[in-house]
Every structure is written in structure tokens, then in C-alpha cells.
Amino acid sequence: MHHAREQQEAPRTPTPEEVRVVGLVPLLEPYFRGGAVRALMPDPLREAMEGNGLTPRHGAVLPHLLAGRPLTVSEIAQRLQVSLSTASELIGGLSRAGIVERAEDPANRRRILVSLAERHRPALETFVARRGEPLLRALDGLSATEREGFLAGLTAWVREVQR
């Protein structure tokens, strides 16, 4: 269906300002390539991910589990903006690898709570810190209003890419 839409609608011509923005995107690509990510990942986490055939999509779940309370599968799906079945599959892979733990919610036994396995917490904290350094330095130079705009723009972009 998505392919049919692409054939029917010609892409709109970007404005010169939009061309500047779109032109920045390829400059970020090396940062997201497997080799760059792999180099920043502590050995125990990398071995667990690679040894279990886990992908970057699986890895996207993990930072959400670092802070705060365990999350439900629905909350993870909402945060990642993926379907409930996709979130469940990602969590299943992470659980089989021993990176996350699933438990019944004592307040509602039909709900499953997902938390990071404590043995992987230090490695994930290190990885998130390393991975986030360039972004955090960039955010440090922005005002609160600019940060809000940046977050709104990134969120909208993610939504469009995931359609």
C-alpha cells in the first residue's frame, strides 16, 4: 500500500532551507552504522546482543528501561511508536538473551512488567553515556525553547519514518 502511494504522489520540492536540513542527514549516517555503534558498546552488552542475533531495533528498547520503574509492553510500544506485537517481539528477544526480565504486574496479573536485568545495567549505562555524548553537547548549546523545538522535530521525523 505504501509503495502504491509513492507511485501516485510526486514528492514535493523542498525549500532552500529544507534542502539545508535534508543535506545534514547524511552527515549523521556514519554515527549510526554498525561499526560505530559496536565500538561504543561495552563487551558484555555487545556479546549478548550479537550472540543472540539482536538488532538495533532491540537496542532501542534498552535506554527506556534505564530510568525509573519497570515498563509494560504497551508503554514500550508507545515510547517506540511501534505496534504492540512488534514491542512484544523485541522484548521477547531481549528476554531470551537475558538482557531484560519480564514479570507479572502484582497490581494486575494480566500485565507484564519489563525491566533491565541488573547484570546488564552498568554496561548499558556506559553505552548510553558514550552514545549520547555528541547529542548532549549539542543540546547544551541550545536554549530551552530550541531544545523543545528540536525534540518536536525529531519526534515528528521518527513518526514519519516509521509509517
Low-confidence stretches: none
**Computed structural class:** mainly alpha
Helix fraction bin: 55-70%
> Which percent range describes the beta-strand content?
5-15%
Instruction: Give the overall shape, derived from the CA principal axes.
Output: globular
Largest sheet: 3 strands, antiparallel
Order of helices and strands: HHHHHHEHHEEHH
Q: Termini separation (Å)?
A: 11 Å
Radius of gyration, CA atoms, in whole angstroms: 18 Å
Give the oligomeric state: single chain
Number of helices: 10
What's the β-strand tally?
A: 3
The strands making up the biggest β-sheet line up spatially as 1-3-2
Mean pLDDT: 90
Write up this protein.
With 163 residues, the chain is mainly α. The protein has helices at residues 2-8, 16-32, 34-40, 43-51, 56-59, 62-66, 73-80, 84-96, 121-140, 144-161, and strands spanning 71-72, 100-105, 108-116. A hairpin with a 2-residue loop joins strand 2 and strand 3. Helix 7 packs across helix 8 (84-96). The radius of gyration is 18 Å and the shape is globular. The N and C termini lie close together (11 Å). The model has no long low-confidence stretch (mean pLDDT 90).
